[in-house]
Amino acid sequence: MASIYNSIKNLASDSLIYGLSGILTKFISVFLTPIYTRVYSPEDYGVIGILTNAYFLVSIILVFALDNSTARWFYDSSDFSERKKIINTWLWSYLVFSIVACLFFFFSADFWANLLLKEYSNGIYLIKLLALTLPLLVWPSVGVNVLRFERKAKKAIFLSLFQSFMLILLNVVFVVILKFGVEGVYYAQLFGTLIILPLVFYLLKDWLGFPNLFEFKLFKSMVKYSFPFVPASLGFWIVNLSGVFFINEYLDKIDVGLFQIGVSVAAVTGLATNAFQQAWSPFAFSILNQPNNKEIYAASFQLFVLIVGSACMAVSIFSSEILIILTTPQYFKAKIVASILTFNYLFMGITSIASLGSAIAKTTTPLGFISVLSSIVLIGLNFLLIPYLGKEGAALSICISQLIIPVYMFWKSQKLYYIPFDFSKNFIMIILFILGSFSIYLFPEFGLVFTIFLKLILISIFFFILLFINRNEVRKILTVFKIKNNII
Asked: Are 397 and 382 in contact (CB under 8 A)?
C-alpha cells in the first residue's frame, strides 16, 4: 500500500511541476496579448497563424514520433552506454532530417510563399527565417525529453521556462521596441534558440556523442514502433484545426473569432492534461517491472479522472467569468464553446492512459488506426453539426471524435496487457462532471456575485458526491498516511 502511495505521489509531484511551469508560461502570454493586439493587424495574425500551423505539421513529420520510441527503449535497459546509444540514434536522425528540411524549405521558399502567403510581400523571407530554425530547435526538444526520461522534472521545466522567457523577451524587443513587424516573431525564435543552445549542451553533456553512436538496426526498430504514432499526430492536427476552416466556410468571421477565444479559455484545462502527459510516460515505464504496477496504473487513472475532471468542471462552470476577466463583451458568447471544449482535454489525457497497454506491448498500430478514423468522423460531424449548431457544433464535433479514441484504445490495450481499471466508477464520474458543468445553463440570469455564489455551491455539491463515490480510495490513502505517521 505504501509503495502504491509513494508511486502515485511521485507521479503527482512531477505533474505538479510540469503544470506550474505551463501555468506560468500561459499567464505570461496572456499578459502580453493586449500588447500584441495593438501591434498586429488581423492580416498579420493570419500570416502568423498560417506559418505556425504549417510549422507544427512539418515538426510532426520530422519528429516522426521517435520521441515515443526513445521513451519506450530508454527504460528497456538500465545500462548508461546503451541508453546513450538510444538517445544519440534519435538525436542524429532527427538532426539530419531537420537539416534536409531546412535546405528544402529555404531554397523553395518562393513556391511556399506563393501557395500560402499570396498577398503578403515578405512571405519568402519569413519562410526562410522559419526554415533556419528547424535544425536549431532539435537540441532543446531532445534536451527536454532526455531530462523527462531521467525523471529530472525540475531541470526539464527550468529548460522549458528559460526558453519561453527568452522567446517572450525577444518578442518584446523585436516586435514592440524595434517594430520589426511579423518578421520580429521569427527573429525572436531564431535568436532565442541560439541563446539557449549553450545551456542545452551543458545539460546534455553526459548524453551527447558523435554520430558513430547512431545504430541503424536500432533506428529501424524505433521507426517501426513509431510509425503508427505519425497518423495519430496528424489526426490530432486535423482534429484541432479543421473546425476553424469549416466555421469560416459556413459562418461569419466573428464566429471564427469567438470559437478561437473559446479554445483559448478551454486550454486552461489543457495545462493540467499536458502536465500529466509529460509525466505519465516516464513514470509508467519506470515502474513497469514493479510487482504492483497494474494497481498503480489503475489508481492513476482514477485519480486523473477525479482531479482533471474536477478542473474541467470548474473551468466550464466559470467560463463566463473567465471571459469577463480576459476579454470584452463582444467575446462573451464564446462561453458555451469553452464549456464544451474543456472536456476535450480530459479525453486527451485519458487517451494517454488508455494507450498504455498497447505501448507496453510495443504495438502502436491501433492508435494510428483509430486516430485516422477519428479524423474522418470529425470531418463528417463538422459537415453535419456546424450548419445547424454553429460554432458550438464544431466544439461538439471535436469532443465526440476525441472521445472515440480512448474508448477504442482501452478495448484494444486490455487485450494486449490487462490492467484492472474500474471503468464503471470512472464513467460515472465523467457523466457527473458533464452534468454539473452544463446544469448551470438551466438557471436564469442572476447578478454576477450571486451567480458566482451559486456556482460555488454547485461545485461543492458535486465535490461531496465524488468523495462519496471514491470513499474507499480516500480511506486507503488516509490509512497510508496514518501508517506513515505511526512509523515516524
From this structure: yes
Give the chain's domain count. 2
Instruction: Let me know whether 192 and 96 are in one domain.
Output: yes
8 pLDDT exceeds 70? no
- Are residues 416 and 363 in contact, defined by beta-carbon separation less than 8 angstroms? yes
When pLDDT is cut at 50, 70 and 90, the band that residue 238 belongs to is confident
Q: How far from the centroid of its chain's Cα atoms is residue 43's Cα?
A: 27
CB atoms within 10 A of CB 216: 9
| pTM recorded for the entire structure | 0.65
In one-letter notation, the amino acid at residue 30 is: V
Does 28 share its domain with 60? no
Q: Please, is 459 exposed, middle or buried when counting C-beta atoms within 10 Å of its C-beta (0-12, 13-18, 19+)?
A: middle
Helix (H) / strand (E) containing 488: none
Answer whether 419's CB lies under 8 Å from 287's CB: no
Residue (of 176, 209, 196, 206) closest to 92 by Cα position: 209
pLDDT digits (tens, 9 = 90+) for 200-219: 888 888 887 776 677 788 88
Provide the domain limits for residue 298.
1-33+228-488
